[in-house]
Structure formats: C-alpha cells, structure tokens
Amino acid sequence: MLKRSAILLAVLPLAACISFGAEPPPSLLTLTTEATVATGQPQSSADAATILVTVPAVPQKLSVLRVPVQATDTSVAYVKDAQWVEPPAQLFARLMADTITARTGRVVLSSAQSRIDPGSRLAGELRDFGVDAATQEAVVIYDGALIRGGSDAIEKQRFEARVPVAAIDARSVGIALNQAANQVAAQVADWVGR
C-alpha cells in the first residue's frame, strides 16, 4: 500500500505538465451577412436562375483557423487569441451564397442539387483574408471564376476590400474582416447578377 502511494505521489506532478492542446480563446470569430435572406420565403428554380457557389481554394496561411497578419513582405504572424469557428473559406462561401440569394434572387444549390439543374457555377480562390500590419487594414481578396448557365465560357474577376483596423486584436480584427468580407460578397453578387 505504501509503495502504491509513493508511485501515485511521484506521478501527480507529471500529470500537471501534460497538455492535450492549447487553451481555447475566450470566444471564436464568425462572419455574419449584411444581406439577409427572407425567412419562410420559398425559392424555386422554375422561377429563378440557379447557381452553385463552391468553397474557394486558399493558400496555406488561410488553411488554419487563425487570423493571419502580413507583418512584412516576407513574414506572416497570427493575431493573438483570434480563431475562426470554422475555416475562413467555408465561412466566406456561405456568406457569398446568402448575399447572392438576397441581392440577385438566384437559388443557390448544393453540389448534389446542381447535377439536376446545372445553372451557373462560381468558383475561385480566397487569396487574402487577414490583416496588413503596414496599413492597419483588414484585407479580403477573392479571385472569382464564373461559368454562367448555358455557357462554357469562364469569366474571371478579382474583388478586394480593405477596412481600417483600430487595433490588431481579436475583437477589432473580427469586426473589420466581417465588414470587408461583406463588401467583397456584395461585389461578387453584383457581378453574378449582371
């Protein structure tokens, strides 16, 4: 019994050193759309054009849940205690889908649904979704590639928004990135709606 107690006492300090991951931040960041879709209003491909909005490709610095800061031309850091609730590319795709529906009336389909009604297809790359330390701005850059329904031609266009950041901290950066993302989503929706 004494031997067992001695082993237990020897292991206790070691247990305090073991960590199974970093401490989560006090809150997680998400995107909220400024262009709301009416609740309870049915949508039909018989009445409106359809579109598939795919999750954009991202560079490695955006494939994490953290918010990148372009510290210099050749170095990237991350905002302390700032973490997305899910990957930024998925958040941005959902924001674009809601904005396109609200601004154009188009029916946004899932990839499975688009096989039945091909409609238009929007793909692209989210090139930047972070902070530029030199200019103190939140930056969202999206390169869109659009194939309109009934066409095989690909249209490409770059969209960009920059919003000043009061401080490079989780709260300020989250607010500014949400504004910039909504500006880009509105630009994309207007392009799709032409």
Distance between the termini: 80 Å
CATH architecture field: 3-Layer(aba) Sandwich
Roughly what fraction of the amino acids lie in strands? 25-35%
- At the fourth CATH level, what is the homologous superfamily? ABC-type transport auxiliary lipoprotein component
Number of domains: 1
Question: Which word captures the global form?
Answer: globular
What is the mean predicted local confidence, pLDDT?
A: 86
Short note summarizing the structure:
With 194 residues, this protein is an alpha/beta fold. It has helices at residues 2-17, 88-104, 111-114, 170-193; strands at 50-53, 66-72, 75-83, 107-109, 120-132, 137-147, 154-164. The protein is built from four helices and seven strands, in the order αβββαβαβββα.
Features:
alpha/beta; 194 residues; 7-stranded mixed β-sheet; 4 helices; Rossmann fold
Report what the structure shows:
The protein is of the alpha/beta class. It has a single domain (about 45-194), classed as Rossmann fold (3-Layer(aba) Sandwich), CATH 3.40.50.10610. It is built from 4 helices and 7 strands, in the order H-E-E-E-H-E-H-E-E-E-H. It has helices at about 1-15, 90-105, 110-115, 170-194, and strands at about 50-55, 65-70, 75-85, 105-110, 120-130, 135-145, 155-165. Strands 1, 2, 3, 4, 5, 6 and 7 form a 7-stranded mixed sheet that branches. Strand 5 (about 120-130) and strand 6 form a beta hairpin. Helix 2 packs across helix 4 (about 170-194). The longest helix has 24 residues, at about 170-194. The mean pLDDT is about 85.
